[in-house]
Amino acid sequence: MTIHSTNPFADPINEPARQLRGRLGARVTIWAAGALDDTAAGLTVSSMMVVPGSPWRVVGLVNVDSDLAELAADTARIAISLLDGPDEEISETFSGALPSLGGPFARGDWEDSEWGPRLARRSWAGIGIEQTRPLGWLLEVTGTLQHIEITEDPTPLHHIRGRYRTL
Asked: What SS3 state is found at 36?
């Protein structure tokens, strides 16, 4: 674990790089690993991309100190659930901003999969982790797409300029 001499998230209004990142906007997802009845861990992730190739890959940035980072290293698999408009509280819970009695997986309808817990009735993907590496204050996770389920996604949830928006 690394302890920074300054808070990397302090005073974001006056930090141009954070302002730039906030203006890019991103789809809100939950990355989860483990099993619901045992060791599940999850994290809100919006810094990710899907990379075409053979095989297709997903690259995401997760908090290096998160329970997910540790568990994903052990399981080498992650389930990625795409959130919809009604899922703001789920996002806030998995980001650590909103408490949930019974833990974060008590909020929402979760199902176990071979890759980890996934949100029911949402588009999701299962990835096999190929590599991780530190990148800035985060951990870059690269994995191969091994399973995909697509739903309607009537109101995809995005995060832009510090607020949730649906498209």
From this structure: coil
